[in-house]
Amino acid sequence: MKKLLLYTTLMAGVLSGCDLDINDDPDYPMNDQVTADLIFPAAQTLTASHIGGQIYNYAGFFAQYFEQRPEASQYDNLATYSFKEADDIMDYAYSNLTAGALKDLKEVLDKSENPADRFAATVLRTYIFQVLVDNFDRCPYTEALLGEEALNPKWDEGSSVYVGVLDEMDAAEAELTATSAMDSDDLMLDGDMDQWRGFANALRLRMYLRLIQGGVDASGYEAKVKDLVQNGTFFTGDIDFDAYSNESNKRNPWYETNAMGLTGNHCVAYPLISYLEATGDPRISYGISKAEATQTYVGQIPGGKTETRRVLGNANLWMNKHVSGIDYTVGATKPVCFFTQAELQFLKAEVFLKYLNNDAAAETAFNAGIDADFAVRGVKRNSTFNNNVMWNGTTDEKLHLIYMQKWVALFYMDHMEAWSEARRTDCPSFSDQTAAYIFEHREDNASLYNAGDFIYPWTNDLGDRRAVKRIFYPLDAVLYNPNAPESPELDTPVWWDK
Fold first, then answer.
1. What is the distance between the alpha carbons of residues 454 and 468, in angstroms, rounded to a whole number?
2. N or C: which terminus of the chain carries fewer CB neighbours within 10 A?
């Protein structure tokens, strides 16, 4: 109840997430009067609102969970990769994460002498910078948030940002003692320092693997990742922001925008449906509705809204009644996930298998990841599914199984990480078959399409066999900061995507 009351207060505007500057109104605190313990929950709220809102939405398209419903058009540009630098795909989230959440966290670090508060603020700061880098490749870091000292901050290389924030987190953790306790209200972990340490270790694990993939001191980070998985302590449950209620302006941010503010625009992409059906996965019933006309699960071909209508010759054959929609009803009070237990276990399974040559431990972690996700969704495993995801084969086949199950487990949970992990692991990989071929052979048992493979959009403004690998730099930064780089093409990989 305390978490909900505090969250409601923040959302009502008593604290502003950006500047906490409300002129001289005696009913509101001034910047220099607001203490660190009140600023920290504002930073958490802003982080959840934007990573669980705008970012969650477009990443869901790029991870090929979502497609644009045939009878609507709100997200046609995401489905067909037709957005431009001026389209504000992430500008709103970027400005609120940087001028809002990161600025608030800097105030916590500037004002607080409590090592527990400083550590939690540093962990959340690390998480935000990781997300920014994974979207843009580069971002302001060394000269960020310095005000008049650096009005036009340089944009640092993403690998340097990763290394920098990891060093910050190590230093902040070194200041903790056995009795360190937070003064700040904590909407995420209720001040549990063991959970904050576990979250920090999970971020290290995630980021170490990307540093290895990016060729940054690969041998050094390989040693670190092995030690971390063998000796580190991680969080229990999920790391999330769970303070929503089914009331106006208090709901999950993605739900509030897409289920309440707009008419339903999302249907389910064909790759996800095809893989869930191929593996007999009972999670297909979570967050996905059956096509009304057939009472079966039908996925939309990525970028295929216009072309499927043309091929069928009758628009009504591919309208909303003939594709599976997103079941928004599970989303009103759904937490915003920062790190799920399922993802953690799958990352551990990868390390055990790939770097530690411990097949038994990898299998245990693999099954723990599946079990954790099933538990969150309230679904039970069955023999058909178990047989289809049985742990056997070569190392590469087992890695593929880990990566595919991680992709499934991140659906409707953490779309940003689903998109990032798909880029890092190249799994799901993109099909060699065209969208037109896959649509034509969608009911053909002899199809050359492998269930779950990504599909290059049928209508694809990037061009043939090209996919989104990053987000454009924010237009305001490009226009008004002479130190901001020009945005590369959308299919230019970020530094760790090799």
1. 12
2. N
